Amino acid sequence: xxxxxxxxxxxxxxxxxxxxPPERGTVVLVHRRVYIVPTRLGWLFAATLLILLIGSINYxxxxxxxxxxxxxxxxxxxxxxxxxxxxRIGISTGRAEPVFAGESAQFxxxxxxxxxxxxxxxxARHLACGAQFVVDIPAHAMAEVxxxxxxxxxxxxxxxxxxLETRFPLxxxxxxxxxxxxxxxxxxxxxxxxxxxxxxxxxxxxxLHTQSAGNDDFSGLRTYQxxxxxxxxxxxxxARTEHMLTxxxxxxxxAELCLDWALLPAGLGxxxxxxxxxxxxxxxxxxxxNYALRLPGVEIAPARGSAHAAACLEAxxxxxxx
Length: 322
Hints:
The chain has seven helices and 17 strands. By secondary structure, it is α+β, with helices and mostly antiparallel strands. The strands form five sheets. The chain has a five-stranded antiparallel β-sheet with strand order 2-11-10-6-7. The longest helix has 25 residues, at about 60-85. It is elongated, with a radius of gyration of 30 Å.
């Protein structure tokens, strides 16, 4: 109920938690942002102390009083150490590598202890998906937390809210705080495996220019294209995988093709078109071809290589279909 109330009133939630998301730069957990309450074990411990105190009063047991106040003092000391274990930690984010839709984005958080003492058993949990990681932070050192967040759709995936929690040293108290760093991960469209577009009769960008095949050393296999000779087909690999594959040699000249939005069937929806184009980008990169990408309002010149593939996939990920 409280969580639903805070979701309906984000300004009140931000005031309560002591920050306004997203937080840029290094986030420091000042004491105002650290909350602490007894755990279930802590409430049972308090009930036990109450029973010991009542028994000691009833029977006038001096040793009972001593034991009760000794355990109570230990609990108070544990409360102080629990809050201190989390307070003043500095949180910064690392770079999240791009992923494809359907995979998990790995967000990296760097926790700086900023203290002369160790900080054991710090739990980091992603509130939306439940991914969690437990780490110990040495004195005057940093520790890394990796949270796997599912990437369900293309585009920018923000990290969202993360819970930091500790129950050190006795588990009687739970101290926690929320952070929401300004971190995001680029999610590419889920690639659809399909054959590259067939050659066309056009001479402009967008045509697949047939090149003379080299006969030097065998370098690998690529997806079969209609212009390939039957002699170049890897029939043994076709029998194993049931996919048409063509032998590629190091002396083979690179083809040039265009991955054009207009070449796709008219019945495909925008997301299906982007998925197929993403599959074409990966297939063209594996084939070693020079390829261009053409979307409505976006055109990337022919090239090849990891940087070119990343630029094409980023354009597909951020494309806004009208």
